[in-house]
Specification:
With about 290 residues, this protein is of the alpha+beta class. The protein is about 35% helix and about 30% strand. β5 and β6 form a beta hairpin.
């Protein structure tokens, strides 16, 4: 495949699948919210998830349109939620008791703007529910713009993840989008890459973990029982001859160390079992001292 230097980082298949689950959950709950809030049958359906540069995304938007600048604490940066002006006007008309239908393209009045902000804040609240399996976010609505050319939320070449939805409010149909910068969502997707699994995948992973655990428990391991080590100079070690005696600092009252790969995990006293050498595991000297103090 040709390498696109404008997109050095690409969404993997696992990342798209994770986002699809989150956005589909959001779309279902948001559709229910709109139906309840507007008192007209409304649906929101995920149509596509794609990676675009920010300038490509803004160039694809209509003018005028309604763009909400959104924060998703604790994630860094800002995201965008875009709704077609016709859908916004139809929603406001329904909230005011109207029948919906074709609406004029005009700026919102002082009465309509609070209604729009309230509706979009409720829609953003459902975004938290959709992403709760990935990250605990608190969406916040900062401002609302009508022209993407005047919006400088990101640099033109910044990579973004754009989710496109098909929005139906009564008889009104349009597209809505959510744009998240790549550096905002990528750490979340990387953490969740091993979390979002189907039931069969989860059962297969659990079986593999049990088999691995059983294999580790049955694996033979070299265990050593040793005296307390000492330090010697190199020339003393070279001069050692059969019959030389090396004094050990290990006192007779101190148990020996039971080690695996130089890691001390128990203490023992030497003994024998029949004709074989053996050792009896005893409490560590530190725990014995603590018990004595108590």
């Amino acid at each position: 495949m040709p390498y696109d230097f404008r997109r050095p980082i690409k969404l993997s298949r696992e990342h798209i699948r994770t986002l699809q689950i989150a956005f589909e959950t959001y779309a279902r709950s948001c559709g229910t919210l709109l139906t309840t809030r507007l008192r007209v049958v409304s649906t929101l359906t995920l149509a596509a998830i794609e990676q675009l540069n920010y300038d490509e995304y803004t160039a694809s938007l209509a003018n005028p349109t309604v763009i909400a600048v959104v924060t998703l604490d604790p994630l860094p940066g800002t995201a965008l939620m875009e709704l077609a002006s016709s859908a916004v006007m139809a929603a406001i008309d329904h909230m005011l008791g109207g029948p919906g239908g074709p609406q004029p393209e005009r700026p919102l009045t002082e009465v309509e703007m609070p209604l729009l902000r309230s509706l979009m804040e409720r829609m953003l609240g459902e975004l938290r529910y959709g992403f709760e399996q990935l990250v605990d976010i608190t969406p916040g609505l900062r401002e609302i713009e009508y022209n993407a050319s005047f919006l400088r939320a990101h640099a033109p070449g910044d990579a973004c993840v754009v989710a496109t939805f098909e929005l139906k409010i009564g008889a009104e149909e349009c597209l809505a989008t959510i744009c998240m910068p790549f550096n905002m969502i990528l750490p979340v997707l990387s953490r969740a890459e091993q979390v979002v699994l189907t039931d069969s995948e989860r059962a297969s992973r659990d079986l593999a973990r049990r088999n691995l655990t059983a294999g580790l428990f049955a694996a033979p391991i070299d265990v050593a029982v040793r005296f307390q080590p000492i330090r010697m100079r190199a020339d003393d070690i070279v001069d050692l001859r059969p019959g030389d005696i090396v004094p050990l600092p290990h006192t007779t009252s101190r148990p020996l160390e039971v080690t695996v790969k130089e890691i001390v995990f128990a203490h023992a006293v030497p003994g024998n079992q029949g004709s074989r050498l053996a050792c009896l595991v005893v409490p560590s000297p530190e725990s014995s001292k603590e018990s004595g103090h108590l």
